[in-house]
Structure formats: C-alpha cells, structure tokens
Amino acid sequence: MENRKLKNSELDRKSVEEFKEASKTPIIVILDNIRSLNNIGSVFRTADAFLIQKIYLCGITAQPPHKDIQKTALGATETVAWEYAEDVLELVEQLQKDNIKIFSIEQAEGSIMLNDFQPQQEETMAVVFGNEVKGVQQSVVSASDGIIEIPQLGSKHSLNIAVSTGVVLWDLFVKISSIRE
To answer: Going by C-beta distance under 8 Å and a sequence separation of 6 or more, which residues neighbour residue 11?
Structure first.
C-alpha cells in the first residue's frame, strides 16, 4: 500500500466564513496569565482544529495581532472567537452566572482524572489553563465547579500549556461527539 500523503487542497478544510458559521463544540477555553506567545498561538490552532466556541485571554496573556502568536496560530486568530478579560476571577463568576460550568485544569485536592471525567450533555463548559510556572490561580481553582487533572506517570509534574490544551480538548471533543451521536 502506498499511503500517499494528501495535499492541502484535498483536505476539505473550512474557509474562515464556513468556520464562523459552523456549529461549535460547547467548550470555552480560558487562558490565565499565559506568558509564552507561542503557547497562545498553539492554543488558537488547537481550538480551531476542534471548533471550540471561544477563547478568553486573561491577565498578562498577550492578544492578537502579534507576530509570535500568528507564527504558531497559522491564521486561527481569524477563525476562533476570542476576547480579552483582565480579571480571570470576574470572568469565571460571570460565566457561572450564565450557567457555564468552570473546570480548572490543575493538580489539586479533589481533582478528577481526565480519563474519568464525563462532560454533561447539552452543557457548555469552560476549561481554565494556567500560567506556565504557577498554574491556575488558587482563587480560580477555588471558584471552579470542578478540577480536571491530566494523568501523568513519569517523573515530571507538568506538561507544557500547549500540550495540556491539546490533550484536554481532544479528550473532551471525543467525549462530547459521542454524546451528540
């Protein structure tokens, strides 16, 4: 079997307009004080891949347009809806008032392992990813409706924010897709 690689023109990708009109996965991503512009761009690109509803950029998290974000986002800042919110805790409280469940992605007491977590049908959820060094702020962890932890079996205690986002969004996307079927 040859298994010829597909050309970009054969991938049947959505245009910017088609993306904006497409039904979205009911997930909101909140970036809490992310320092790396490349990580921010990677999160946009991952959010585009899974038709994520929206990204909130909070605190010191940089905003598009910026060349280092664009370098890794590859245009995803034009497709994925995003908004800046200075205070992540105020944003969390507002989203909760709008009946959106907030889940911090963190290692904390009472966390549920990602592989054991089951999203609720017909519910929009927001997942909070924290600073590369300090993680999600304790006040946000405390205000969250739940804490989801990525199982890790090696000697390191954390994953890069872009990798964490990819792991979590893929897992949730698959689970939500199976609920919808």
So the answer is: none
Q: Is the peptide bond before 65 cis (omega within 30 degrees of 0)?
A: yes
Which residue type sits at 159? L
Number of neighbours of residue 150 by Cβ within 10 angstroms: 18
Could you write out the DSSP letters of every residue in 91-159?
A: HHHHHHHTT-EEEEES--TT-EEGGG--PPTT--EEEEE-BTTTBS-HHHHHHSSEEEE----SS-S--
Residue 160 DSSP SS3: coil
Q: What is the pLDDT of residues 25-70, one digit of tens each?
A: 999 999 999 999 999 999 999 999 999 999 999 999 999 999 999 9
C-alpha 42: how far from chain center: 10
Closest among 165, 130, 135 to 48, alpha carbons compared:
165
Q: Is the whole-model pTM more than 0.85?
A: yes
Sign of CA dihedral 42, 44, 50, 55: positive
Of 61, 39, 55, nearest to 161 (Cα)? Answer: 39
Query: How big is the chain, counted in residues?
Result: 181
